[in-house]
Amino acid sequence: MTVESDNKDANSPQSDVKAPEASGYSWYVLLVLVVVYILNFIDRQILSILAVDIKADLGLTDADMGFLGGAAFAVFYALFGIPLGRLADNWSRVKLLSIGLALWSVMTAVSGFARNQAELTIARMGVGVGEATASPTAYSLISDYFPKRQRATALAIYSSGLYIGGGVSLFIGALIVQGWNQAYPQGGPLGLVGWQAAFLAVGIPGVLVGLWVASLREPKRGAMDGLSTPAHPAPFRAFVGDLSMIVPPFTLLGAWQRGPAALAINVATGAAIAAFAYWMIQLTGNFPQWSAVGFGYYAVFSWASTLRAKDPATFRLIWGTPAFIYTTIGYGLVALTSYALAFWSAPYAETVLGLPKQQLAFILGASGALSGFLGVIIGGAIADGLRKKNPAGRILVIIMGVVGPIIPIAIGFITDNAVLFYVMNFLAGILGATALGAAAATTQDLVLPRMRGTATAAFFLGTTLVGLSFGPYMVGQISDLAGNMVDGKLVGDLRVGILSLIAVAPIALALLIAAYRNVPKAEQTIVERARDAGEPV
Predict the structure, then answer these.
(1) For the segment 110-126, what is each residue's pLDDT rounded down to a tens digit?
(2) Phi, psi dihedrals of residue 23, rounded to the nearest 5°
(3) What does each C-alpha distance from 216 to 81, 141, 380 come to in angstroms?
């Protein structure tokens, strides 16, 4: 890689080079990516509005549903995001995204044929693998279609699909369930009930959108930053190698190739994680959750160890940069709360407040889409504005996403007033959503262009293995612990479960204060630290 311009921001008054501009086609590509992300979250989040029906039909607990809404999807989403993020760095991002979209859409439809928790778990894992292609490819494409000064805004607009899709999923899911069950009270064709029909209805259209994605042009990698990036000579060989880094027992073979000491460290770490997972299984009785989480964290350790040996510059700028780690985990805890609320608000309104499914789906869906869209757009714009005055200014917006939702959550999930619940849920959503664009842009700015797909995968490890894996599950598990047996069945206390999310805020705040202190120096020394790690810049 060669540097064609200095490391100054193109927006700097000292720069004599004309700042690159986003074209009309850039905005068209962004529109397509937003549509993809809307489908992404419809397929991911529709489980929320279907949770009460699935729980009743399959005889599951709140903790079981938290697992299905969290770790069953999140672990495979996070892990396959690692090699797929690297493939996005080395191969056509447009082709990869179109293939991934088709895969997760098919697996969403397959969820409609599930007859038990195991089958639904496998389908959710498949959705996770397919969706792992989305953000690494999209983040990298956006970074090559938009200059740095517009990047947080563009990423925030893309991220709005998260909230639109999540909101629309509630309305669509409730509408299909009610219509199907009214038309077929004893089960419809193939014995399918309403929640199964909903999975089929939202999964199939994604295959057609995949063809639209395939028509996009692949941009020149690194052009917006004045950094030429050569094509990888063997992208799929690298992908297979990366995939082997996260799948046991290949992880052991990879460690052995690095030497006996690396193998010993890998085995010891795996044993420690397995022991912790076993202890948590004994403590909670939830084997699927903790075995999945243990597998996920061991795989991430193995991948990071291999990355350190094979690509020390990328490792140095991601895992070896405290600012990146603090930002990623800090935002991951923001995501923990956001994912938990997104998953449990509808079941809470239906079971605790006794609100009709179609009414709450429409109101929560619309307010969730609006609050998320406004929050992420406003947050992205504020983050870009603060970034011009302060290299760490975007971190202040992430901090707002931590502190802002505390009071709305406390009020909204204590009151029995439906209107107040809806209003507070809206406020919590808009305040929490402000953080995403700022966090994503910060992590992208801390690496070189060729590393952006990998950096995105690492960033999403925080949002998934910290946020999504634990948010829905934590609420469900605490709900079960606080619940009571009624007619021989465990009835959880979702109010206690959701209010427990407030305890996460102090930890997130401490991490983000550390990020604020470390980001400026980390960004100023990117090229220097990459060169020290062997990068030919």
Answers:
(1) 999 998 999 999 999 99
(2) -90, 175
(3) 22, 11, 25
